MmcQ/YjbR family DNA-binding protein
Amino acid sequence: MNFDRAKSLCRTFPGTTEDTKWDNDLVFSVGDKMFAVTNLGEATGMSFKVDDERFLELTDRPGIIPAPYLARAKWVYVEDANALGDEEAAQLLRRSYELVFGKLTKKLQREISGA
């Protein structure tokens, strides 16, 4: 998983915003709800939401742990770039975005998607 490519991918999702939280974390959000978090500057890891049924499978892999403070909401933290290939990482990030987008109000979803 190339963390810089992952950041670039997050920026392509409709309605995505990014800001800094907790002094040194770069947060990607849709509708003011986070879907991915990494550190500012050169990324050395990334957290994102996953489907409930994938959480245990992913955290059983070396280099992926339950995300600190967010594990109860089924977030994982990829601490080793070799733990995921770029294609799988892209699918997981897109799914994280979709999970968060799906929790937004229908009105906000329409505004973001331009429908």
Summary: The radius of gyration is 13 Å. The helical segments are 3-10, 52-59, 86-102, 106-113. The chain has a mean pLDDT of 94.
